[in-house]
C-alpha cells in the first residue's frame, strides 16, 4: 500500500462514517497522510480526526475512534492506533509488492506525482543569485508535480540560500546542480571537486550508477530469458523506500526542500546496489519466479531514480 492508497482508504472511511450518519461533516477532497514521526506508532499517521472534530462538533478522540472502527481490517492495513489528542497511526501489512510495482510501471517517471498541493498557487520571487535560481527552478517543478500552480513573479515567496556559485562549466550541469541541491538551501553547498570523481563517496555517482545498473539488469535478464514480472513477494528494504517516494516528493514541495529528494535517491541507490546481486540466476541456478519478481522490483527502483533525478533537472544515463 502506497501513501496515496492509504490516503484514499482513510478518505473512504470518512465517507462511510458520513453516509451512515456517524459524522456530519463534508468529506474532505484529500486526506493528508505522512510518515509517523519519531516516538509515534506504526509507519504512517494522519491528523484528519483533529481537522474534522470542530465541524463535526465532536471531540477529536471520538472522531478518531469512529474512523478507526472503519479502517481496521482494510486491505493493506495491519493495525490502527490512536495517539495524542486524536492522531491516527497506521501499521501496514508486509508485502503488497505487486501493487507497488504496478503503480510504478503505470506512472513511469511520474510515479510520486500527485495532487497534494492542488488548489495552491505558489509564486517565488525571481532572483539573480545562481544557487537561489537553481533552487527556485527545482521548487517550481516540485510544486507543479504535486498539483500546485507554481511560477516566478515579483513580490513572490523569497527562497533563502547559503551563497554558492553554480560552476556549470567546471563541473558539468549534472554535478553543478547536485552540488547546489543536495545540501539544504540554508547550508553551505557541497564541495564541487569530489563530484567529479567516480567513487562511492560521490552521492551523485552512486545514484546515476544505480540507475544504470537497473537498466543493465534488464538487458542481462533478457539474455537469460528472465523478464520482470512480480509473481512472489520480495522482502527487501528497497520496496519500503520505493513506497516512500511519493511522500518524499510531497514533503520536499511543501517544505521547499529539494535536498530531501536527493537524500532519498541516495538511499534508494544504496539499497538497489546492495540488492542487485540477488536479482538474476548465478551459475547453474535456474530462473524462477523469485528472479522475475526481483527484476521487476529492480526495474521499479530504476524508474524511481530516473524520475527523481528528472525532478532535480539531472540526467539518468543508461550506461556509466
Write structural notes for this entry:
The chain is built from eleven helices and six strands. Helix content is 50%, strand content 8%. The two termini are 33 Å apart. It is flat, with a radius of gyration of 22 Å. It is of the alpha+beta class and 320 residues long.
Question: Any chance you could write out the topology, listing elements then pairs?
Answer:
Elements (H helix, E strand, L loop, with lengths): L2 H17 L14 E2 L8 E3 L1 H9 L3 H12 L5 E7 L3 E6 L4 H11 L13 E4 L5 H16 L3 E4 L15 H4 L1 H10 L20 H21 L13 H18 L3 H18 L13 H23 L9
Parallel strand pairs: 5-6
Antiparallel strand pairs: 1-2, 2-4, 3-4
Helix pairs in contact: 1-3, 2-3, 4-11, 5-9, 8-10, 8-11, 9-10, 9-11, 10-11
Question: What would a concise description of this structure say?
Answer:
The protein is α+β, with helices and mostly antiparallel strands and 320 residues long. 50% of the residues lie in helices and 8% in strands.
Amino acid at each position: 500500500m502506497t501513501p496515496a492508497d492509504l490516503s484514499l482508504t482513510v478518505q473512504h472511511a470518512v465517507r462511510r462514517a458520513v453516509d451512515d450518519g456517524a459524522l456530519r461533516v463534508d468529506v474532505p477532497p484529500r486526506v493528508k497522510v505522512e510518515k509517523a514521526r519519531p516516538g509515534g506508532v506504526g509507519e504512517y499517521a494522519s491528523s484528519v480526526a483533529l481537522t474534522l472534530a470542530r465541524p463535526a462538533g465532536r471531540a477529536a478522540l471520538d472522531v478518531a475512534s469512529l474512523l478507526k472502527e472503519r479502517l481496521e481490517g482494510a486491505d493493506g492495513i495491519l493495525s490502527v492506533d490512536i495517539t495524542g489528542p486524536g492522531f491516527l497511526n497506521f501499521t501496514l501489512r508486509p508485502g503488497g509488492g505487486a501493487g507497488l510495482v504496478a503503480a510504478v510501471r503505470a506512472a513511469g517517471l511520474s510515479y510520486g506525482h500527485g495532487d497534494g498541493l492542488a488548489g495552491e498557487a505558489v509564486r517565488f520571487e525571481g532572483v539573480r543569485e545562481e544557487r537561489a535560481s537553481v533552487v527556485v527552478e527545482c521548487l517550481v517543478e516540485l510544486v507543479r508535480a504535486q498539483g500546485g500552480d507554481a511560477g516566478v513573479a515579483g513580490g513572490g515567496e523569497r527562497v533563502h540560500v547559503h551563497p554558492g556559485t553554480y560552476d556549470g562549466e567546471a563541473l558539468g550541469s549534472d554535478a553543478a546542480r547536485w552540488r547546489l541541491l543536495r545540501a539544504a538551501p540554508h547550508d553551505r553547498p557541497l564541495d564541487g571537486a569530489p563530484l567529479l570523481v567516480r567513487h562511492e563517496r560521490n552521492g551523485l555517482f552512486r545514484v546515476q550508477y544505480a540507475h544504470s545498473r537497473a537498466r543493465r539488469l534488464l538487458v542481462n535478464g533478457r539474455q537469460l530469458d528472465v523478464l520482470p514480472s512480480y509473481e512472489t513477494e520480495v522482502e527487501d528494504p528497497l520496496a519500503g523506500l520505493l513506497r516512500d517516494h511519493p511522500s518524499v516528493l510531497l514533503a520536499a514541495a511543501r517544505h521547499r526542500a529539494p535536498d530531501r529528494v536527493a537524500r532519498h535517491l541516495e538511499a534508494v541507490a544504496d539499497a538497489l546496489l546492495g540488492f542487485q546481486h540477488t536479482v538474476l540466476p548465478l551459475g547453474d541456478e535456474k530462473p524462477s519466479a523469485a528472479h522475475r519478481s526481483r527484476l521487476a522490483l529492480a526495474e521499479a527502483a530504476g524508474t524511481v531514480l530516473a524520475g527523481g533525478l528528472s525532478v532535480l533537472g539531472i540526467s539518468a544515463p543508461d550506461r556509466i
